[in-house]
Structure to design on (228 residues):
């Protein structure tokens, strides 16, 4: 299976901070990489697909980059509603696999 | 706006079969280029992809569960279903049904709220 490794597993940040989360694939997955946000008690929500395409309705402070094996999700200015867990997912090959998640907490 | 709703028993005995149904509303399960998927999440843990089905009936399963999983689709009822046999406590989780946009770069754009399944005698 394609292994997806996210780092860090958790981070503490303040409102207004720039936050970067990384995701590494065990093999090249081209741009077949999605980012989801999950808040407690809710289903995940798509933020970024195809590594860097912003889903309609998602604030522009979210951005994604990368290709091949290394990817990044950046939140340019953290807002109170952004405290959540973020997951990367590869859709290059089945079984589709997710990273272990990054919990963004309030500092 | 398409919505998904999972339904099924919340408690399943060990060695029995877990059966869940996802009802699609607000759109036809047969329209568009979509896969219909099941994903689960043990309490406090990450997401695990179980498998998916296309409207033609074509399926893909996670090899870690493949021998126990069956996903089916009923286009007349606008539903798709999950069956997981020989369950153990390790199958206790929140189970989500979801819709995957199967464009050039696939992604999951609609999720159900999830249903908790506990495996216990």
């Amino acid at each position: 299976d394609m292994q997806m490794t996210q780092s860090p597993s958790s981070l503490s940040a303040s409102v207004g901070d720039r936050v970067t989360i990384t995701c590494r694939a065990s093999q090249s997955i081209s741009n077949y990489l999605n980012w989801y946000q999950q808040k407690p008690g809710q289903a995940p929500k798509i933020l970024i697909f195809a590594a860097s395409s912003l889903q309609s309705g998602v604030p522009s402070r979210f951005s994604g980059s990368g290709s091949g094996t290394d990817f990044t999700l950046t939140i340019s200015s953290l807002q109170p509603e952004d405290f959540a867990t973020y997951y990367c997912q590869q859709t290059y090959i089945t079984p589709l696999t997710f990273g272990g998640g990054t919990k963004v907490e309030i500092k | 706006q398409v919505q998904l709703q999972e339904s099924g028993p919340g408690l399943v005995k060990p060695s029995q079969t877990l059966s869940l149904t996802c009802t699609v509303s607000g759109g036809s399960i047969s329209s568009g280029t979509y896969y219909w998927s099941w994903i689960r999440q043990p309490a406090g843990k990450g997401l695990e992809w179980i498998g998916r089905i296309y409207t033609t009936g074509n399926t893909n399963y996670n090899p870690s569960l493949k021998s126990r999983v069956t996903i089916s689709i009923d286009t007349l009822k606008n539903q798709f279903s999950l069956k997981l046999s020989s369950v153990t406590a390790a199958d206790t989780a929140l189970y989500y049904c979801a819709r995957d946009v199967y464009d050039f770069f696939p992604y999951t754009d609609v999720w159900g709220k999830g249903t908790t399944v506990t495996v216990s005698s």
User: Anything to note?
Assistant: The mean pLDDT of chain A is 97. Chain A touches chain B at residues 1, 31-32, 34, 36, 43-46, 49-50, 53, 55, 87, 89, 91, 94-101 (CB under 8 Å).
